Here is the input.
Amino acid sequence: MKNLKHLFDRNLAWAAECRQENPDFFSRLSQQQDPEYLWIGCSDSRVPANQIVNLPPGAVFVHRNIANLVVHTDLNCLSVIQFAVDVLKVKHIIVCGHYGCGGIEAAMEKREHGLIDNWLRHIRDVYRFNADQLDGLAQEEMLNLLCELNVREQVTNVCNTTILQKAWKEGAELTVHGWIYNISDGILKDLDACISSPQEI
Ligand code: CO
Here is the structure.
């Protein structure tokens, strides 16, 4: 299994299916991308952005990392946000977390996981900011709430970037949303963390 031929076979079948449904699907997409949404989600293989909201290629600009974090100094994430806002002019930025997030669970474990513990420190910070709400809850309830609080925290982080601040100052219509996905039933929930201006942060 040196060249993963089965994946190329699947690709050919998929491309043919797309062309059958819409003969100019690829020629239209090849002209440009014009996505209305930037999705910031978890790398978890069970939380694929486009499929969850049932949108085709071209509709969602995507950034994913472990536990859907927006770290103030993460040039990768910041570059994605800047390109999405300044060049693609997306109208909505969606931070989507999910229940049962392995990153959130690992962050709360006592044992060591190696390099990734440095990344997960950001989740420990979210825990620390909200300890009064989280302490005393049963384990599962605590982790579920931490998944939600983490989304809210990352929404705030998106809003506080120089990119969003500048865009809003220049009058851009841009809304940041906080959602959470349930792996066990495939359903998205809006956390009502919607922000459309600096005053709402
Ligand atoms: Co996750």
Remarks:
- The radius of gyration is 19 Å.
- The longest strand covers residues 175-182.
- The chain has a mean pLDDT of 96.
- The chain has two domains: 1-31, 37-200.
